[in-house]
């Protein structure tokens, strides 16, 4: 590590070059982490659900099966047993070694960015990877993006710490790792890059400094991950390459607007139920290690209870695991499932995800959101097709748009979600309705946030508190604040201490500029400097202002901003600075006080808050 730090310094790799080099390392680790996580997850499925329950959850069309699963009769009660054991092992791992790894990892990474100076304990990504693979592999309802995001974010944080980078740089490395992980596991590098900058804030704001490093890391992570896939699926979208819908009529946009309203209601239900379930499990009077097992068992019981209601159709078990297999059908043949089936999957998926992740199980929430939004969209599309067959000709298109619209609203990330869903489906014919629905859900769903640790804007983030202060101070000039010369007593350089002492008796100044015969400022002294002469009156007639003053003084000009002035106040621990005319060297104009600078900052801050409040109203 020391050699790498010296390499950075030797070649002076600053700004873009430095970030690309560091992002290369983050991307390699994130890509390898995605491969390991994918392998572990499928291995757990093969030797748990498939081995003991005869059930192998169907996956999306573009997924690569790393293990061969024998087709056997499904044993429903054994699914519950496997899920309970998986929850028990996952809970023991998390709460024994890294309690911070509970729940969905993306929120933990966001919290580290804003409130923990970008620091993530080294063990967390390892614990999160294993616990999430067990949770999802045994049938827990969750997504893959949380653990992968935390793997990349954790390595980025660790690397920045080992290289002794600043807190700001560590935060950027964390965000880059998070984007790299998401870009790799979903095979969507552009979406991962934008996701890293956008997911940190709940309002229309973005961490712009993180986008380029995240893009570099995401490209590398994606390139590493796809090398583990066979050629025939390496560049195929996750949900296959056969999706090609179009928006057939402008009137169809009205139906999409109605879809947005439905998605907002379902999103509010999802977020509310998720966090109420989380709070309920927190109050259960048992050791936390057991909570994920309880949540997993309840989710499993609910899932298998649906089997007889739908003629033992195992597709209903999309309410467990990732649910991508059921979502695949909703995207390609929604009519085969029907409205009742799709609505059931969407609503029950809310409950099983809340039970799995809200109880402390380890997994992401993006994947379930895709299933909930896609199935809701598919159901709305079928209803609209039944009512308006000439307007809504492709119900499956509503499932694609529903995926994007649902997550955009509750995750507060419209841009990255549009890009993500396009990359997952390969369907670029629905850009206009997707933009409409994601915008509507983003605007309307502002009260319901899936990621609770998001800051509203950069102004509200602890990571940018200092930046905002600097921005405000840089917008104010010394010339607007300082005290002009007419109120200040100037001391000639030849004035004796005796005269100075008598002058101080009738003056409330603390700092006294000293000028020469031409009126040019040559030094400055404070009342404390004069006190050193008070105990020896023999010096009063002998010492003059030039003996008392400091001739190596700092000053500011009227054109300097207050940020420059505040830095000089703090670096020299003084309360006043002389203001000199830059056009006429040495010409004294007045004094700038620290107190006046702070008052000007506070006034400007209040103006900005009032303006913001008026804009909001």
From TrEMBL:
Keywords: CBS domain, Chloride, Chloride channel, Ion channel, Ion transport, Membrane, Transmembrane, Transmembrane helix, Transport. GO terms for cellular component: chloride channel complex. The keyword Metal-binding does not apply. Gene3D superfamilies: CBS-domain, Clc chloride channel. GO terms for molecular function: chloride channel activity. Its main location: membrane. SUPFAM superfamilies: CBS-domain pair, Clc chloride channel. It is found in: Membrane. The chain crosses the membrane at residues 20-40, 74-95, 172-196, 253-273, 293-310, 316-334, 339-359, 365-385, 397-424, 430-448. It comes from the Bacteria. Pfam families: CBS, Voltage_CLC. InterPro entries: CBS_dom, CBS_dom_sf, Cl-channel_core, ClC, ClC-type_chloride_channel. It is a multi-pass membrane protein. Residues 484-542, 549-608 form the CBS domain. This is H(+)/Cl(-) exchange transporter ClcA. It comes from Crateriforma conspicua. The lineage of its organism: Bacteria, Pseudomonadati, Planctomycetota, Planctomycetia, Planctomycetales.
């Amino acid at each position: 590590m020391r050699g790498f730090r010296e390499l950075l310094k030797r070649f002076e790799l600053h700004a873009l070059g430095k970030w690309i080099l560091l992002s290369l390392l983050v991307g390699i680790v994130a890509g390898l982490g995605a491969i390991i996580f994918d392998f572990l997850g499928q291995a757990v499925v093969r030797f748990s659900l498939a081995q003991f329950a005869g059930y192998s959850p169907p996956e999306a069309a573009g997924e690569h099966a790393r293990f061969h699963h024998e087709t056997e009769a499904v044993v429903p009660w054994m699914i519950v047993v496997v899920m309970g054991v998986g929850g028990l092992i996952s809970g023991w791992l998390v709460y024994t070694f890294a309690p911070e790894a509970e729940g969905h990892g993306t929120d933990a990474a966001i919290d580290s960015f804003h409130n923990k100076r970008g620091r993530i304990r080294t063990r967390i990504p390892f614990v999160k990877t294993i616990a999430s693979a067990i949770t999802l592999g045994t049938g827990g309802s969750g997504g893959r993006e949380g653990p992968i995001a935390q793997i990349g974010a954790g390595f980025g944080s660790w690397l920045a710490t080992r290289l002794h980078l600043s807190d700001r740089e560590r935060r950027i490395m964390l965000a880059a790792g998070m984007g790299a992980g998401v870009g790799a596991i979903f095979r969507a590098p552009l979406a991962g890059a934008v996701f890293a900058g956008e997911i940190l804030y709940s309002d229309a704001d973005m961490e712009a400094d993180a986008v380029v490093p995240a893009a570099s890391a995401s490209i590398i992570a994606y390139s590493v991950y796809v090398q583990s896939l066979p050629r025939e699926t390496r560049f195929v979208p996750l949900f296959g390459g056969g999706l090609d819908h179009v928006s057939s009529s402008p009137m169809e946009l009205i139906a999409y607007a109605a879809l947005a309203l439905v998605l907002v209601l379902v999103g509010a239900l999802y977020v509310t139920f998720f966090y109420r379930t989380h709070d309920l499990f927190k109050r259960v009077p048992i050791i936390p290690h057991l909570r994920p097992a309880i949540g997993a068992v309840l989710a499993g019981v609910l899932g298998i209870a649906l089997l007889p209601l739908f003629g033992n159709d195992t597709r209903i078990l999309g309410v467990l695991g990732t649910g991508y297999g059921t979502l695949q059908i909703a995207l390609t043949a929604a009519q085969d499932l029907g409205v009742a089936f799709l609505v059931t999957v969407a609503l029950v998926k809310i409950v099983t995800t809340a039970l799995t992740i809200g109880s402390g199980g380890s997994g992401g929430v993006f994947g379930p959101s895709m299933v909930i939004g896609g199935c809701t969209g598919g159901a709305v599309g079928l209803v609209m097709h039944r009512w308006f067959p000439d307007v809504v000709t492709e119900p499956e298109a509503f499932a694609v748009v529903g995926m994007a619209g649902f997550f955009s609203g509750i995750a507060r990330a419209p841009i990255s979600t549009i890009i993500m869903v396009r990359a997952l489906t390969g369907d670029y014919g629905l850009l206009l309705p997707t933009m409409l629905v994601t915008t509507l859900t983003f605007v309307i769903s502002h009260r319901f946030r899936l990621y609770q640790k998001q800051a509203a804007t950069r102004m509200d983030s602890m990571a940018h508190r200092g930046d905002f202060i600097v921005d405000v101070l840089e917008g104010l000039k010394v010339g607007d604040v300082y005290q002009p010369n007419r109120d200040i007593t100037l001391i000639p350089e030849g004035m004796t201490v005796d005269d100075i002492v008598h002058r101080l008796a009738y003056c409330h100044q603390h700092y006294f500029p000293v000028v020469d015969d031409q009126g040019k400022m040559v030094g400055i002294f404070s009342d404390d400097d004069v006190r050193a002469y008070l105990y020896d009156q023999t010096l009063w007639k002998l010492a003059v202002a030039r003996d008392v003053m400091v001739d190596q003084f700092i000053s500011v000009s009227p054109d300097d901003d207050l940020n420059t002035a505040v830095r000089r106040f703090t670096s020299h621990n003084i309360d006043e600075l002389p203001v000199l005319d830059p056009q006429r060297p040495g010409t004294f104009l007045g004094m700038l006080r620290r107190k006046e600078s702070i008052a000007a900052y506070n006034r400007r801050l209040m103006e900005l808050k009032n303006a913001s409040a008026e804009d909001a109203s």
